[in-house]
Amino acid sequence: MQLNRLVIFYKTIGDPTRLRIMKMLSEGPLHGQAIAGKLGLTPATITHHLKRLREVNAVYERRDGNTIYFYLNGSVIKHYAKSLINLAEQDEVKKDMTDVMAERQKVIENFFTTDGRLKNIPAQRKKKLIVLEHMLKGLQKGKKYEEKELNEYIKKFHDDYATIRREFIINNYMYRENGIYELNPEEMWTKIE
Amino acid sequence: MQLNRLVIFYKTIGDPTRLRIMKMLSEGPLHGQAIAGKLGLTPATITHHLKRLREVNAVYERRDGNTIYFYLNGSVIKHYAKSLINLAEQDEVKKDMTDVMAERQKVIENFFTTDGRLKNIPAQRKKKLIVLEHMLKGLQKGKKYEEKELNEYIKKFHDDYATIRREFIINNYMYRENGIYELNPEEMWTKIE
DNA sequence: CACCTAATTAGATATTTATCTAATTTCGGT
DNA sequence: ACCGAAATTAGATAAATATCTAATTAGGTG
């Protein structure tokens, strides 16, 4: 459920230590020991908090040797913030959709073959999102997908399923938990400006 | 401290019952009994959550007879959300300030007499904020003000101290706790577009 | 292989807090 | 001045969780 995701995210954020970590990471990646040192806490404690932050995709990590660098995941955080802003705005804004739709259609025609395969992943962010959303249309809301199942689905469009699957997560279209994937509610998707 | 405010706000938001209340209030004001009914919880429990939400100014209330209607305080919520977005954006954007300053100066000259009194409170939001910020300059960061003390300060500018004091809170320039007022860090202020 | 450092896991403790029931307060109407 | 409805307060209980120490796992390097 959508509300539930927000709850978990904000509960995670609403902790002094975790917010301090996020603040530190906003100035650049750090590894666990460094964080522990700066905060005067035990590595075990940092592991605990990073686990929490990872669970909501507020951070991601990159391994270098046996030290792991943690990065702030700005886009996910921004999306949660935006869904808070939506909540705070009681008025419903309806925009004119016709032009937007025409533009989307053109992008889809350019990037997909007539038999529905993706020619290549657009480099331009805006077009990439349109393409991703097009592929997402075949997935069911609320359904839980095994990673393998999702890979198979994506392969119908393009061989590089790993990249595309990652894009689904990065742009907040999907949510991963214990290797199980699920569509996010649309309010949480990365929006095209 | 700034981080601390954020922590308290997000901890408050990060609770299923409170987020559900906020969601309900986003569709219009409600009184306590109504909220309790819809959520299947005790009035005492609702009081508890509303107290929390009030502490961070996420809601405000209006009394009608002896029933109290609660409203969502959209602007405060949006400001916290924006400060999250700031955190998520690692790049620092510097803008050209010279034009902006000239405009502010003009507004201040128009709305204040030569001996520094406020002629009247601007109706236009943008100008109002400039005027409010001008008055705020005489307050000290980190200092805690009694309500009476703050009233006296505002009276130096204008007799209607109650309205102005309220504007300080609504626009997130100041923070109130147990009748004590304090300046918010500037990152949290209402920003002029 | 032996060793070192980083990270994680497991288990224990102490603090926080959401919720309830019961008592109390607040306000308007009769 | 009294009564009823709405809200708050007080106190109790149960659940969640931040942190620590100690043990374990992972990855590299001499």
From TrEMBL, chains A, B:
One of its GO terms (molecular function) is DNA binding. It comes from the Bacteria. Keywords: DNA-binding, Transcription, Transcription regulation. The keyword Nuclease does not apply. Residues 1-92 form the HTH arsR-type domain. CDD domains: HTH_ARSR. PANTHER family: TRANSCRIPTIONAL REGULATOR, ARSR FAMILY (PTHR33154:SF35). InterPro entries: ArsR-like_HTH (IPR011991), DUF2087 (IPR018656), HTH_ArsR_DNA-bd_dom (IPR001845), HTH_MetalResp_TranReg (IPR051081), WH-like_DNA-bd_sf (IPR036388), WH_DNA-bd_sf (IPR036390). This is HTH arsR-type domain-containing protein. Transmembrane segments: none annotated.
